[in-house]
Amino acid sequence: MELIQFLCLLIIFYNVSVSQQLSIRANSPTTTTKSTSTTKPTTKSTSTTKPTTSSTSTTRPFTTTSNNVSNASNPLAPSRLESIKNSYSELNLLSKTNPSDFIFDFDKAVTGVSTGTGGRTVSATAANFPGLINHGIAMTIGFLAPCGINLPHTHPRATEINFSVDGDFQIGFFQENGASFIMNEIHKNQVAVFPKGAIHFEQNLNCVSATFVAAFNSEDPGVLTIGNSFFGSLPATVVGASLGGLNITTIEDIRVHLVQNPSIGIAECKKRCGLYTFKGESFMNFCVIQIKKIQ
């Protein structure tokens, strides 16, 4: 515990130093603004004729179908995706695409990515992978950290089949009112199925990273993270009524502690793997408790 207390002191000292630096910067905006604004007039005058050249050069690659796209996971113009989607035949669709539209690099994806303390998930759907349009399939790869969990969620428009690449996963789903909760473990080279719309999760049970691949029978499966959506999106009054009259203050406090998916999972796994995770105020509260023990 003495080591933890020492680390807490260091982190609190660091946070204070950073906050002081930020406050100094925040209190002197006029100085930096003026110094930059005095030099900008000459820059603006010299660059007034150039914006048209640069703006056209940046927009052309988006609208030109012969554009050399090296990575199909780069963001695409919605108008282009809509044009491909509305093709009257497969040949017409192919005429609007590039060869690079039919590959997807999960390592270099910039859209469809969710990153949390428990790892990250990368999804290839019709929204960021044009080659999937009108083909009714999609895929997500989950790179879960030790004890990482892909939080309970649903796919409103797709059934999922989930393959363990390397790891042991606890998986479970709940399909509808009156149904039984189903939970299993899958190991390397095993698969699990989650019915369309079922609330389900995947938890890495090991103290090393693990990977799963999820395939869907829809190019637009959708995703709804249950906890974040229930507490974060519904009116607090409705949430409170659903929980037996829980007051709004308590609900707002819960909202502050909602985590990004994937997160670190169950306490048993964290204890077994020696993981200590804290988030924001919870960590600072822990430090305060530890420092009080010194006094």
Automatic annotation (TrEMBL):
<feature type="region of interest" description="Disordered">
    <location>
        <begin position="24"/>
        <end position="76"/>
    </location>
</feature>
<protein>
    <recommendedName>
        <fullName>Cupin type-1 domain-containing protein</fullName>
    </recommendedName>
</protein>
<keyword id="KW-0479">Metal-binding</keyword>
<dbReference type="InterPro" id="IPR006045">
    <property type="entry name" value="Cupin_1"/>
</dbReference>
<feature type="compositionally biased region" description="Low complexity">
    <location>
        <begin position="28"/>
        <end position="74"/>
    </location>
</feature>
<keyword id="KW-0732">Signal</keyword>
<dbReference type="InterPro" id="IPR011051">
    <property type="entry name" value="RmlC_Cupin_sf"/>
</dbReference>
<dbReference type="GO" id="GO:0030145">
    <property type="term" value="F:manganese ion binding"/>
</dbReference>
<feature type="signal peptide">
    <location>
        <begin position="1"/>
        <end position="19"/>
    </location>
</feature>
<dbReference type="Pfam" id="PF00190">
    <property type="entry name" value="Cupin_1"/>
</dbReference>
<feature type="domain" description="Cupin type-1">
    <location>
        <begin position="104"/>
        <end position="252"/>
    </location>
</feature>
<dbReference type="InterPro" id="IPR001929">
    <property type="entry name" value="Germin"/>
</dbReference>
<dbReference type="InterPro" id="IPR014710">
    <property type="entry name" value="RmlC-like_jellyroll"/>
</dbReference>
<keyword id="KW-0964">Secreted</keyword>
<keyword id="KW-0464">Manganese</keyword>
<dbReference type="GO" id="GO:0005576">
    <property type="term" value="C:extracellular region"/>
</dbReference>
<dbReference type="InterPro" id="IPR019780">
    <property type="entry name" value="Germin_Mn-BS"/>
</dbReference>
<comment type="similarity">
    <text>Belongs to the germin family.</text>
</comment>
